């Protein structure tokens, strides 16, 4: 299965099914800037990473913003008019191995960039989205943030019409889940996470 086909299949779970299959151009709807030549299993490679090529000036892109830490470009397969991506200039394959300082630099630019995008597109809302990992729809293994402009009744996400089940505070499984997550957030686990990031950075130096 090609990268584009794989991404489209994942997005079928999020996008409005009626829109997706009734639109003759629906094959153009894809969640992120993709290359059919990219091997989705080669998560740690930055030589063939399309985002790294854009950063190095080896692939074309419409650049909206750039500083020492990150770059913002228009997604070439947008979900909405003005769909953009905020990308760190250093290569990190997923959010969980991206240093907090880099994540902070990316996120700090979202209000500034999103306001400009909304004004330019006539929107008053946007989704900020990160696909982290294959099951979540990540295809390009270089951390990036989606800024997706929204308008009322655009029916972009089918999940917005789903009925959500309220959290049962008396459910033992819920309290066990909360306790398990809290345990993973203890300082000892933070140290392990920092070591994970340092080991990844060291392997790339």
Automatic annotation (TrEMBL):
Residues 50-157 form the HIT domain. A motif (Histidine triad motif) lies at residues 142-146. CDD domains: HINT_subgroup. Pfam families: HIT (PF01230). The active site is at residue 144. InterPro entries: HINT (IPR039384), Histidine_triad_CS (IPR019808), Histidine_triad_HIT (IPR001310), HIT-like (IPR011146), HIT-like_sf (IPR036265). SUPFAM superfamilies: HIT-like (SSF54197). GO terms for molecular function: adenylylsulfatase activity. Transmembrane segments: none annotated. GO terms for biological process: purine ribonucleotide metabolic process; sulfur compound metabolic process. It comes from the Eukaryota. This is HIT domain-containing protein. The lineage of its organism: Eukaryota, Viridiplantae, Streptophyta, Embryophyta, Tracheophyta.
């Amino acid at each position: 299965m090609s990268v584009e086909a794989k991404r489209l299949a994942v997005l079928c779970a999020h996008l409005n099914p009626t829109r997706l299959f009734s639109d003759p151009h629906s094959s153009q709807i894809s969640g992120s800037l993709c290359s059919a030549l990219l091997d989705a299993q080669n998560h740690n490679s930055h030589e063939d990473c399309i985002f790294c090529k854009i950063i190095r000036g080896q692939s074309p892109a419409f650049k909206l913003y750039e500083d020492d830490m990150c770059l913002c470009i228009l997604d070439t397969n947008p979900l909405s008019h003005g769909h953009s991506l905020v990308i760190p200039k250093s290569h990190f394959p997923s959010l969980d191995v991206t240093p907090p300082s880099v994540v902070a630099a990316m996120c700090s630019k979202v209000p500034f960039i999103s306001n400009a995008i909304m004004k330019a597109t006539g929107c008053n809302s946007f989704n900020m989205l990160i696909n982290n990992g294959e099951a979540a729809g990540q295809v390009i293994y270089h951390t990036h943030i989606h800024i997706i402009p929204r308008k009322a009744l655009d029916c972009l996400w089918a999940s917005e019409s789903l009925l959500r089940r309220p959290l049962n505070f008396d459910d033992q499984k819920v309290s066990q889940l909360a306790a398990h997550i809290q345990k993973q957030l203890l300082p000892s686990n933070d140290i392990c996470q920092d070591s994970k990031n340092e080991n990844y950075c060291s392997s790339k130096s």
